[in-house]
Structures are given as C-alpha cells and as structure tokens.
Structure prediction request, 295 residues.
Amino acid sequence: MTRPSFRGVFTALVTPFRRGAVDEAAFVALVERQIAAGVHGLVPVGTTGEGSTLSHAEHRRVIELCVRTAAGRVPVIAGAGSNSTSESIELARHAKAIGADAVLAVTGYYNRPNQEGIFRHFEALSGAVDLPVLVYNIPGRAVVDINDETMRRLSGLANVVGVKDATGDIGRASVQRLSCGDDWIMLSGNDDSALGYMAHGGHGCISVTANVAPRLCAEFQACCLKGDFAGALQYQDKLMPLHSALFIESNPAPVKYALSVIGKCAETVRLPMVPVAEKTRAAVRDAMVHAGLIN
Prediction:
C-alpha cells in the first residue's frame, strides 16, 4: 500500500454532548469550523473525544459524521484505541468501511503489556486491516511506554506508518527519525512542546488547542513545516498560556469549557469527568484573551 504523508495540525476533536447524548449538530459545526480555519486533518474519538465513555454505537456514529462532513477535504484519523486487541481491530475495520484515512491506536492501558505484547498488539492490528495505523504512545494515561527499539520494530510492519508521541520527550523524534526511516510519520501529541518536536524532525501535531484556536494552530504548523521557526515562536508565545491552561485539569474538561465560552458547544462531560473549577475557568479565559480569541 502507498503510505500517506500526514503533515501539519490534526485536531483531536471533542465530542459535544446535549441532554446526555452526542450533540450531532454541534459536532458537525465544529468539523466545518476546523476545515474553514485551515487545519490539515481531524482525529475523532480519541482521548479528547471522550472515546472511553462513548458506547460502541456512539463511537461509530461520531466517526461516520466526521468522515461524511469532511468529505475528503482533509484526512480523518479515526480513534480505534482499546486495551483489547480484538476490539481495536473491530473499530479499525469499521473505520475503513466508512472511509476513514487512518486509525490511531493506543497501547494496552490497564492490562500493562510488556514490549513484546505491545508489538504483537500492533502486529495483529496491522495484519487485520489494510489501513494506515498510527501508534499512540501516551504513558501518562496508558501506564506503559513504547520504547525506541519496539518503535523501530513497529515501523517495519506493513500498515503501521507512524506515531503520535505524547511522551513529552522531544529527543525521541530524532532517535525515531534515524531508526524508523524517512517514511515514518511523527506527530507530536503535546501542543506545548510541538515547536521543539518539529525542530527535531517532526511532521505535525495532533492538537487539543486547535479545537479552540484552529487558525492559529494551523498557521503555527505552516511556519514549522517551512522551517520558519522564528515565525513559529511568535505563535508559540501567543498560544503557550492556552496550551497550559487547557491541561490544568484533566482533558477534555478545560477545552470544552473554552469552547462553551465562544459558543461552540456545551461544556458537558461524562462522568467520571466533571466540569472545571472556577479557578481553571479564569485561567482559560485569561489565556484566550492573551491569544486574541476573546476580549
């Protein structure tokens, strides 16, 4: 298969809720806003999309809405993460069937597989679905970390094409660029360190902040991709308080609050997540003012 070349900012979309259900109209409007602002791609039902609290039917529906609304204008990387390999395969098969461009799959959170188990998880996923797979390495949530040697092995699998690196270890981009080859796609999973990650040879970012500031995040990535790191630094300074404020409390409660401030969706999250405290609200609003998003 021809490996896709994902570049730029991919928004880790929130999943809006209304009266206990997915707010489909708000979600479609969010997708349209992202595309109009110039983002390079979309990632539904990942961590930020509260994939862990969606039913299987809701999970499938949100991806279908995203693919249908995007209509080929930007690529869609569908969340297909699970700590059950068979479930991840099932979600990936659905993503392929409805036209997603790739899937994003996390390691086995809670069951804490060793490195061989991690490799076999992705080997099974790669062999079961003819669709590009991005490995999601987020030890802060998954507990386990995919080490550099395992990542090198994964890069040799037919359909495993790259990584969303949320380790916060910027140097890994250089290590993996050298060990995984020129075709290996490297996307930062952390907005705050994406500038450094790009300077180490990264190709983009799967961004939480882009939900709130899609145009600024797209312009930031455009600077990075053309090697204009002085220009990118100006965007970094504008966005850094927002990058920080959106993680004062567990994602996605702060970003949903930020979206509610600008009238894009309700701040509703599903238990065990709860709305953010007033101190966090104030910090988010201040950061939005600093970025020029509100007065």
